[in-house]
Design goal:
By secondary structure, this protein is α+β, with helices and mostly antiparallel strands. It has helices at about 55-70, 85-90, 125, and strands at about 5, 10-15, 20-30, 40-45, 75-80, 95-105, 110-120. It is globular and about 40 Å long.
């Protein structure tokens, strides 16, 4: 992870090789007093860089940043229901599926469903490998 930026509860970092961005992750810590303990993350990996550890490296760094430095107790994310590789990555990092949001996002002109996944700081070890 090379570059990072911080702006009012939002951070982002990318993974580069030879100056080319291979992946990017964003972290948004909610600012509402009732949700300040929660962050939402979004991850993207270039198609040419998939299955090379880029997503793993970015996820590991984001989890460490959230739990170790940002005071976060819960990390949430959304993942398209047909993205099996990303779901496997998130599960390997201790995230569990909490539900499915139907028609959640517009993708290629169609409304797509997403799974809602989360990981708790205190329960993280118990969640690893659990779906």
């Amino acid at each position: 992870m090379e570059d990072a930026a911080v702006d009012s509860g939002r951070e982002s970092a990318d993974h580069r090789s030879a100056g080319q961005v291979l992946g990017q992750i964003g972290i948004e810590v909610f600012q509402s007093p009732r949700r300040r303990h929660v962050a939402n993350i979004g991850l993207g990996v270039a198609e040419s860089a998939r299955r090379r550890g880029v997503g793993h490296t970015l996820m590991q760094a984001a989890i460490e940043q959230c739990f170790g430095w940002l005071g976060v107790q819960r990390i949430e994310l959304e993942v398209y229901t047909d993205n099996q590789a990303a779901q496997a990555l998130f599960t390997a990092h201790g995230f569990i599926r909490e539900g499915t949001a139907l028609g959640y996002a517009l993708r290629a002109g169609e409304h797509a469903d997403v799974h809602l996944m989360a990981r708790l700081k205190d329960a993280s070890a118990a969640n690893v490998g659990r779906t």
